[in-house]
Amino acid sequence: MNLLNDAWIPVIRRGTPKRVLIRPYEITEGIDVDPFCSIDAKRPDFKSSYLQFLIGIIQTVMTPQDEVEWVRLFCKPPSKEQLFHSMQKDQRYFDLIGDEISFMQEPNLNAGRKPIANLLIESPGENTLEQNTDHFVKRDRVKGMCEACTAASLYTLNTNAPEGGAGIRTSLRGGGPLTVVIIPDGYNTAYDTLWHLVWLNVLIAKDLERTNCTLSLQDSAAKFPWAGDIRISKGKGTETTAKHIHPFQTYWGMPRRTKLNTSEVTQGTCDVCGTENTMLYQSYESLPYGLNYGEGIIHPLSPYYSDKDGLKLPVHPQPGGFTYRHWPLYIMTNSSTNPRPITLQVIDKRLKDLEKMKVIFGIRVKVFGYDMKTMKARCWYESMMPYWLIPEENREELVEFANRLAEAASAIAKNTSNAVKESWLDSNSKARGDLSYLENEIWSSTESEYYRQIHVLEEMLCQENNTHQSVFEEWVWYLNRISLQTFDTYAEQVSLDSGKTKSGVPRVVQARNDLIWNNTGKKVREKILGLPAREMNSKKEDR
């Protein structure tokens, strides 16, 4: 199987919602009649990997030289014949099992056998199996994988590689990175295709410099690490930094040393996608001390932040996922200390170029990734977020407003969680528990209203209308209403006959009154939003 010349990418057409497999160069086939519009994978992490694979291969084989070429290929996509021709020069690096070079594998690897399921990130590790603690993700669920799913798992593992013990290296962006991709907003169907989805995330030549990697490197192994000798990372001075790789390798990072076992291939039903296949892989070999990616490398599809020493580190999903509280910082801010993904740093210019061509087009952003805790995948998160082409003179102020709205929501979400806890437990209780799900409920319940208010603020700024305080005022009372609704839902679960001095109805009433006071009090109104103090005849201070 060759990943450039064989059909393995699962997609659906706009007019025919039937899953089909295509070759990468076929993504523009029928684009003017019945285009491929989306990827249709059985697993969400595979879906993201197929997309990143397509972005990576298009970026690698046909990087546009300038903005003019980018706009031209956006408006008039290349034919599948043109894409085929572009990909052929690199096709030998994409044999799943090759004579000398195999995709994301190390040749002549002589190591212990591992079940093929271990290529899946959520599969229980060796310690888990030995201790019989695979309670939620069971062993032996996947015994055989077809060629397409095996290739997808190799790419997914190397792209998201978590920690795994001594010498088990994480991905080029660390364990479980957050990925941000630009997608069409869907309103202009002519450009709502798989090609345009991929092309929106492709950089022009000069933007590749932002990765900090070495553009002058032409060795194939600088682009595809499996094309040459693997940089074994055992000992000092073996770290792989930006100076060792070409920018293309950011899409093809390979921290894990693996080799598929071809001696145990069988036929039957793939345990991942459910298709019948004559090539089911059952095991692979693996060794530690693969590529140890270090300082300076910036991946085009991830946001970064600066640590106390000024080092740029990739952002990772955290419990609760990626909500609108992250939107101002990682999606909209132009900041040197918290840089957005490179693709977002340049998209405004691309959209303006399209406007000049009379192309009416809008975008959204999709964020996704694994929330990892050391070696364990706790959860897969996905979020869809809006994106607006904001005049640069208004961007800083709008981002400030957006941050203040999100900060107010964060405070009120915390207030709600604390109030529910107070209604459930009397003051003498030492019971503890994680009520973060209550805060997440506030975030999800208020998301659409948040973006509506941001849109109102944007229009105010464009009209030089300085009445943002009215939006802030409306936001406070909206959040308070949602907070009280959430509180009332969960407070109903309180036992009303506990016999305590401060229990039952009195405790609930007190907790609710405190919640209103704190939601509309000094911290939220004055400190966060800069609103005038509320008019209440009370000497009670905010908690």
Q: DSSP helix count?
A: 14
Largest sheet: 3 strands, antiparallel
Q: Give a count of the beta strands, DSSP E runs of length 2 or more.
A: 13
Task: Classify the beta-strand content into a percent band.
Answer: 5-15%
Q: What low-confidence regions span 5 or more consecutive residues with pLDDT below 50?
A: 128-139, 496-502, 537-543
**What structural class do you assign from the helix and strand content?**
alpha+beta
Separation of the first and last Cα atoms:
64 Å
Mean pLDDT: 89
Strand order of the biggest β-sheet: 2-1-3
Helical coverage, percent range:
25-40%
Which radius of gyration do the C-alpha atoms yield?
A: 26 Å
Total domain units: 2
Task: Give the SSE string.
Answer: EEEHHHEHHEHHEEEEEEHHEEHHHHH
How would the global form be characterised?
globular
Task: Jot down its keywords.
543 residues; alpha+beta; three-stranded antiparallel sheet; 14 helices; 13 strands; 36% helix; disordered C terminus
Write a structural description.
This protein has 14 helices and 13 strands. By secondary structure, the chain is of the alpha+beta class. It folds into two domains: about 10-375, no CATH class; about 395-530. The strands form five sheets. A three-stranded antiparallel sheet has the order 2-1-3. A three-stranded antiparallel sheet has the order 4-9-6, with no helix packed on it. A hairpin with a 6-residue loop joins strand 7 and strand 8 (about 275-280). Helix 10 runs antiparallel to helix 14.
